[in-house]
Amino acid sequence: MTHSVGIGVIGFGWMGQAHSRSFRAIPTYFPGDGIVPRLVAVADTAPDRVELAVANFGFVVGTPEWRDLLERDDIDVIDITAPNALHEEIAEAAAAAGKHIFCEKPVGIEPGATAAIEAAGRKAGVITGCGYNYRWAPMVQHAKRLVDEGRFGELTHYRGRFFSMYGRDRLGVLNWRFLQDEAGYGALSDIMSHAIDLAQFLCGPIRRLVSVKEIFVKQRPLPSPHTGTHYDRGSPGDPTGEVTNEDYVGALVEFDNGARGTLEADRSIFGPQSQMAFELNGSKGAASWDHEMLNRLRLYLPEEQPEDGYIDVLAGDAFPDQGNIVPGGGNSLGYEDMKIIEALEYLRSVVAGTQHRPGFEDALANASVAAAMIRSWESGGWEDVVSLRID
Ligand SMILES: NC(=O)c1ccc[n+]([C@@H]2O[C@H](COP(=O)([O-])OP(=O)(O)OC[C@H]3O[C@@H](n4cnc5c(N)ncnc54)[C@H](O)[C@@H]3O)[C@@H](O)[C@H]2O)c1
Fold it and tell me: Is the pLDDT reported for residue 229 higher than 70?
């Protein structure tokens, strides 16, 4: 049986293009699901991106005006891959139009916006998803299964981090990500949100925390018109502007289950490249994973293995979804493969008519932790995590 799903993508930069490639790949990698995404329409204010979407990705319609997409009956899912400041307005309008909504993280420019978006999606009864893609690495899914089976015993420690190189270049331009009024918070929304998501996915809800932040690169070159995405560079001597949100966030955290941990995120650090990673320890064992070595899970299960120390488990077609993308063992997946699995799993939920995880409920739980971090920056002390849910 074939399930045709009409897709409208809003924002056709890095993520809009990665999502669109993922939707297109689903029928070729996962023909057994019978899911056939139709790339109906794309909206972007940059004309060259609209042109690219129509000419090379096969979108039927391209427009600078995202509201046009909401009026179309042939679109079932609105995929929001526009900058964070637009998430709330678009998501609320999409919910009012009865569309299912996938929104990139952090789902809103600040925690209050995430709460409003979650309420709008819940009240409209639409199926929501969000872009916490690191969950979908087959080795992270495997670690989650081992946690759920109790193979690590009672969890005692969790260390999560996202150390990214994207802001370390002092000539990296002052794009929207570095501006509080366009991106909202900095490392907190952009990459700490991923670290919070994996922490709560693997170790459960965080109940209280104390947090600090810092801006390490205070000025950046101004972008020229129609540039200014993640990795664009200026030149020495270019006019500069002030970075208005944080490069670094760190936190000590306590989980509901009693585990203690640390979370850190930095976008301007030298050394790590894209170290979205965790280590967890329990009363019977331990695991660690790092996105830079996406296909490897390090496990220490002393009751199950003769070696005293970590052993490496390599991803392969024995793990769910992986074999559809590449057969055999040790044949690596990459970043965009997580996006394909993410898109597939979301559309499976849409087709089944069941609420999806991670959806806006998870984005809300994430934003509630972020809000406690922000309060802690101001109070300088421990803060309880309080749900921001709007009834
Ligand atoms: N999950 C991940 O790993 C990940 C990675 C990168 C970005 N993101 C998220 O994806 C979103 C987009 O980030 P990106 O890196 O793709 O940004 P980007 O700057 O590459 O692309 C954003 C696009 O939105 C377009 N746009 C701006 N205003 C618009 C409007 N009014 N209507 C329609 N289009 C508009 C821009 O022209 C641009 O093409 C952000 O929310 C970001 O947090 C997630």
Answer: no
